[in-house]
Sequence to fold (163 residues):
Amino acid sequence: MGKVLITGMSGTGKTTVLEQLRLRGYETVDTDVDGWCVWGTLPGDTDAGWLWHEDRMRELLARPRRVPLFVGGCVANQGKFYSQFDHIVLLSAPWKVMCERLGRRTGNPYGKSDAEQTEILRHLREVEPLLRAGADLELDSSIYTAGELADILDHLGTSGGET
Fold:
């Protein structure tokens, strides 16, 4: 079964679409919760940020499975794992849409303060182009419903769907 990484900036819909996929019976991992990340610095870098626990992620991706795995997150060391995923999908959205979503969400407080929004805007300029370069597919989450996004991802995970 397929392994799909769903990445993107805060407010693009990663958690929402993961929940849709979980309700369909698929294995989902939101790396923003449950101890999947540690704060740290990549070798040769000076900026600290969230990193996946590499041993834990390697074990997750190596496990045999009967249903597709969908992993959601955006961390500095995710590129180390790209070769272990069948698909890398970037969720994007216009800045205004992201801000509206961040203001409405209740399950995660990140992105509500001015300082956090400034940080997200910086990541949008500096990090999103890197994510785009590594992605097989980019989906603008402002033009699809969560269910439609889940349908597209479902196809990728279950049929090895070509991008």
Remarks:
- Residues 3-159 form a domain with the Rossmann fold fold (CATH 3.40.50.300).
